[in-house]
Amino acid sequence: MSSNQKFIVTFKDGVSQDEIKKYVEQVNGSGGKVYHNYDGVITGFAAEIPPQTLQAFQKQQSLTDSIIQGIEPDGEVHIN
User: Which residues form the Inhibitor I9 domain (predicted)?
Assistant: First the structure.
């Protein structure tokens, strides 16, 4: 069983697809899997991310010049 968890990683406005591709390659190269790309209202991707890659992304997000807008758990949304 994989210890990877599902997250949505979003990027700040103006971030190029080439910059985002580097993060996608990190996920795929570390045993994770990107399963959806977003390029509309939000820019980013949904992926199964290994713990060590997630930690690296979270550390990068904390920097003042980070291009990462947010990292949120992916899951179902229900409206009543």
Answer: 6-61
Domain assignment present for 20: yes
Inside any domain, residue 41 = yes
Record the tokens describing residue 11, joined without a space: 């990027």
The per-residue pLDDT for 2 is: 66
How many residues are listed for the chain in this entry?
A: 80
Query: CB–CB of 79/15 below 8 Å?
Result: no
Counting the structural domains of the chain, the total is 1
The residue range of the domain holding 45 is 11-66
- Residue 26 DSSP class: H
pTM of the model as a whole: 0.90
